[in-house]
Amino acid sequence: MSDATLQVRKLGLHPGAVIGVCALTAVAGAALGWGADALFGWFQQTFDSAPALLRAAAALPEAITIAALAVAGLAFGLMIVGDWEGETLVCEIRPDGVQTRLQKRTAWVERGRIASAFVDGEELVLADARGRMLAVGKVDGVGPRRVGRAFAEAGYPWADGGHPLERAFSPFVEGRDDLGEVATPLLRARATALEDGQKARARDLRAELSQAGVLVRDRRGAQEYARLPGSSRH
To answer: What does the alpha-carbon distance between residue 204 and residue 72 come to, in Å, rounded to a whole number?
Structure first.
């Protein structure tokens, strides 16, 4: 096994994405500071008044206003990045397995269980030999090519081209699709969890469905499902 394979690779939000967001919000703040006087005048002419914060900004020297709003914009960018990181999968690729973290939940998948790894849409998927999901999480902002390169260099079975069962997925329509007495109630419960914003509950139900032989993913606000080859309808 080469030194490259033995190296631990940690993947998370790309530094370029962090810098880009923070730079954009800081520049937007500076631009707002630069145009504070003009914006204040427009509010005064249109509404005969202006927000207190804008009045305070217009009363300060322009250089101070620009600097203060640039710092405020940077702070806002860091808040955006923090929320983004919370929704993005962080994983450590090790010789003996992969450790994943999504929000506050950390999990470990042994290397021997991983039969395939691929990016499906904006998600990294680790699957076993039967196609069941072992781990899944969003990698938008991480970079699919960066993810694929890291797994391939570590010697993991990386597959390009999306989900191997891409053509088998179809939207789940309640009342029309009956996947059995186990999977159908789980899909209904997951739809309710998504409507209520219960993301952790939706992830747990997705894992249960995978173990039951039904893969599910979210596309355009709807659940799509695919039955794993060889799984029984129950």
So the answer is: 38
pTM of the model: 0.77
Task: Look at residue 2 in the predicted model and tell me its pLDDT.
Answer: 47
Residue labelled with tokens 């979210």? 218
Token pair belonging to 180: 């059995």
Tokens 């305070």 correspond to: 56
Task: Convert the pLDDT of each residue in 163-205 to its tens digit.
Answer: 999 999 999 998 888 888 899 999 999 999 999 999 889 999 9
Can you tell me whether residue 163 is helix, strand or coil? coil
Residues 134 and 128: beta-carbon distance below 8 Å: yes
SS3 15: helix
Cβ proximity of 118 and 160 under 8 Å: yes
Domain range summary for the chain, segments of one domain joined by +: 15-87, 88-164, 165-234
Question: What residue spans of the chain are helical by DSSP H?
Answer: 3-6, 15-34, 36-47, 52-59, 62-87, 144-153, 183-195, 199-211
Sheet with 133-138, side-by-side order of all strands: 116-120, 123-127, 133-138
C-alpha of 140 from chain center: 5
Q: Which residue has the tokens 């520049």?
A: 27
Q: Is 4 in contact with 95 (CB distance < 8 Å)?
A: no
Assigned architecture for domain 88-164:
Roll (2.30)
